[in-house]
Amino acid sequence: MSAQYKKKDFMSDQLVRWCPGCGDYAILSQVQTALAELGRPPHEVAVISGIGCSSRFPYYMNTYGFHTLHGRAPAFATGLKLARPELSVWVITGDGDALSIGGNHLIHLLRRNVDLNVLLFNNRIYGLTKGQYSPTSEVGKKTKSSPMGSLDAPFNPLEVALGAGATYVARSVDIFTKHLKSQLVDAEAHRGTSFVEIYQNCNIFNDGAFTAFTEKAVRDDRVLYMEPGKPLVWGATTRYGLAIQGLDFKAIEITDEEDPRVLRHDPSNKILAHFLARLDGSDGMPVPVGLFYRQARPTYDSAFADQVAEARQKLGNGDLASLIDAGDTWEV
Amino acid sequence: MATTESAENVVIRFAGDSGDGMQLVGGQFTRTTALFGNDLATFPDFPAEIRAPAGTREGVSGFQIHFADHDIYTPGDETDALVAMNAAALVTNLARLREGALIIVNTDGFGPADLSKARLDSDPLEDAALLAPFRVVKASITTLTRGAVEPLGLSTKEADRCKNLFALGMVYWVYSRPLEPTEAWLGEKFSKKAQILEANLAALRAGRNYAQTLELFQDTYSVPPAKFEKGRYRMITGNRALAIGLATAAQKTGQNLFYGSYPITPASDILHALAPFKNYGVTTFQAEDEIAAVCAAIGASYGGSLGVTGTSGPGVALKGEAIGLAVMAELPLVVICVQRGGPSTGLPTKTEQADLLQALYGRNGEAPVAVIAPTSPADCFMAAVQAVRFAVEGMVPCFLLSDGYIGNGTEPWQLPDLDAIPDIEPGFRTDPEGFEPYMRDPDTLRRPWVVPGTPDMQHRIGGLEKQDGTGNVSYDPTNHQHMCELRAEKVKRLQRLIPPTEIHGDPDGLLVVSWGGTWGAVRSGVDAVRKEGQRIGMIHLRHLNPLPTDLGDILARYDRVLVPELNLGQLARVLRQEFLVDARSFCKIQGQPFLTREVAAAIREEIAR
After folding, report:
1. What does the pLDDT look like over A41-57, one tens digit per residue?
2. Which of A133, B84, B193, B581 could form a disulfide with B90 if both were Cys (CB 3.0 to 4.6 A apart)?
3. Pick from A64, A77, A320: CB nearest B247
4. Comparing C-alpha atoms, which of B152, B166, B177, B138 is closest to residue B29?
5. Same domain, yes or no: B180 and B303
6. Cβ of residue B463 closer than 8 Å to a chain A Cβ
């Protein structure tokens, strides 16, 4: 870690224009803090976004930035990373951007495992278009476009990511500032596509979407802070642990943090990750935050560069004259 | 006794089932003919289905070659010789034959099942009146091929796959061509399959010997070599020339070229051609869809590579929003559109020129782009280099409007002098002093290209309207008008790169204007009618946006303007709107290129009007 850069080195001169009280402010602050802590010079960082409230993010970063098309940021970021593999590339997207109009690009980015970070700001609503239900809104959501309640079942972003073959899947919350920052630092360290879902409160169109487990008063009772190698336990006064019952979890009361019935977190276990991703705070279960899954797999960009290097090694640097003067030629 | 006659030019069409290998033997005849020194043009004409039901009319695959002892510009109107491997191939091609044409039929393709699949009630070979205008040579090619390869112990299926070479052997004899080039090619192709190699060689030689021995042909023909400009030549398809042009542009720019594409007919061959060019500074990315293909290319351009995407009309429709972003972000991008019959899925394997207006205008907002259309297969090389130059020098998307006819067609290509192609200067800015992302060169109006990773020059770009100079997001009304006008003017100033327009023919009278792949047929049509004593001038437009500076003056010099196009009059509409000229259209929209006589007839009609 370098102390060379400070948070303000990553702040642009543009006026931040999100609504007062928006969760995006907290995320912006933590991304800037994390990048300063990572010690990457601002000119080696590129922030690529799609369309939506969250996608205004690049304008507020003193890095390279490209505010692109709705849903397409993963494709632009892929092209950029393949052209400039040395850059630290961050995709900023939202639930509508990444999972609705851009669903295809997201899953293909994840299966390819391009070495960049995807921060999905999930507020379960369309904000910039003023309050329609999103692909992560709960069934029955009443909005301007669904006065009798929305009909479509929501995506679980983490399950989408795991299903698409993501090699790094994590979750944090806008107001969990320290947790968020360390999660971002950890994500950048992963080689491959790091997918981080960030619960983000839209105080205008979907205020309090996450307060049932993020309010200070209930947070410690409802949130499971996962740490690799540590028991999966939570609870402020009464302590609980996750144990296996049949093919599912159950919550058990514990008095001993090292209770042998309690599962230890293993982010390399994809089956465990799938189970953890399904926990949504219902039925006495917690909402997990932290790293769900991590897998070491060659990145697309390194394999892409390797093929170029291999071609150059085997064939030498291409000689245009011989490329043109090939096949059956004749002289007049 | 057969005699050998000299012919100036010959059109041959190989036709069979799409699994019969007609494209292969067409390609071999082309290669041999090119090595012999004839000028030639080809026209592969095949169904969209990989294997349409065998024996049906829909499954007929054709390959036409026109070769001559002089300059030719088209694959020919009427066919002098047809090879028909089955009943469907015969009946679907009769209308293309000139009177007296030679037909070589495989009688084994005329059994009851073949007739039924071709929807024929009776055997056309028994129809004396139908075949009276032609010289028909009947040979049981399938049976003869089986006989020829029998000693090699192949299965019937494997043996039957050699029958195209038997037919090719026959045609080689009729047109006095050597077997050696094809023998050598087979030797390479089947170097690890000795049995298949022997069978193919046996079939090829047996076909030739059969034709020679049985004296089935009244005459054989010899087409002497054409007089080419001095130089080195090779055969090339448009799609391959385009790929080599892109690789050349990459080296002339000194930057990597990034080709993002999604498979689509008839553009996929460009992706196939570029994929092995990794050691030439060319990288390819097969994207998840058309949109991702163009977006990744723009992302690569943002990163300082030459971003190129290639597709056909349906893909362009999907890429429109992203092309508009490249206009707004002022990044270089080349968009290749190998046009095919539309709208919608249309006629995927057939040619058309109906994406001109889509290329010019098919985006939201005022989104001007440069548009270049290659003239012929060989011209795709230089058109590709130019498209990269326009994109880089204008920091703007440049369309390369090819078409299926050019992309798949072949012609001799005089190998270019690479040193004569000027470098393309990317002009990356690395000096932070006084830098603003949307500052401009006062002459070209180009903004600087800054590669992410350059120290002290961090900036943000995007699809929101930009304030000129600072590049900050701006909703200012007068700035938006200024920027719309500026982006248009920046493209217009690319006129500086366009050479003066060449006029072929007369300086007054009727002006015929062609663009893209119709050049050859239009030029042949113009020449035909000029020989009749009419005053006709012709210009060919390679640059559709911006248009050449001298175009208005040229149009004004002629009494009348005729624009033949494979659409419903798209260029004519542009010329009318730009120059208030009464340009009249001659339109053909049948998925087929113009025939010379069609253009000639339209010119005569226009003159008589």
Report:
1. 999 999 999 999 999 99
2. B84
3. A320
4. B177
5. no
6. yes
